[in-house]
Amino acid sequence: MEKIFAAVQVPQDEKVNIRMFYLANKADIWCKSIKYKLLGPDFTWSRFLEELRAKFYPVVVQQQKKKEFMELKMNSSMTVIQYASKFTELFRFVPGFVSSERLKMRIFEKRLTFYIRNQLAGQPILIYQELYERAGEVE
After folding, report:
1. What is the 8-class DSSP label of residue 20?
2. What residues have CB less than 8 Å from 29, skipping those under 6 apart?
3. Is the pTM of this model over 0.70?
4. What confidence tier does 133 reach under pLDDT thresholds 50, 70, 90?
């Protein structure tokens, strides 16, 4: 929903009303069951997302994903693409931990296999995408 709302530039105050068109299955049923909450003036898009995440994405799952990110390292059976994909998937669970592009790069690089990390040493890499591409080339 967020991608669509951004693409068509839906104003914040309209998002809650439009969300019904994008929910399906369990989320749609859940949304209808809390309709009384959705009608209040205090029910903003941020509040809706909090409620949605609490229902379908409990804190215990979020903590598990954060732990997975903290423990993620590229191993010999992974390709750079697989590692980067998992890194990106789990990265969103630690927004406060990774506060800058540079820190994101350092974490990604530090967890690459020794061989790839060694081949990249000393190269002036300034953005994450470049680091990812060079790691793939080394592989």
Report:
1. G
2. none
3. no
4. very high
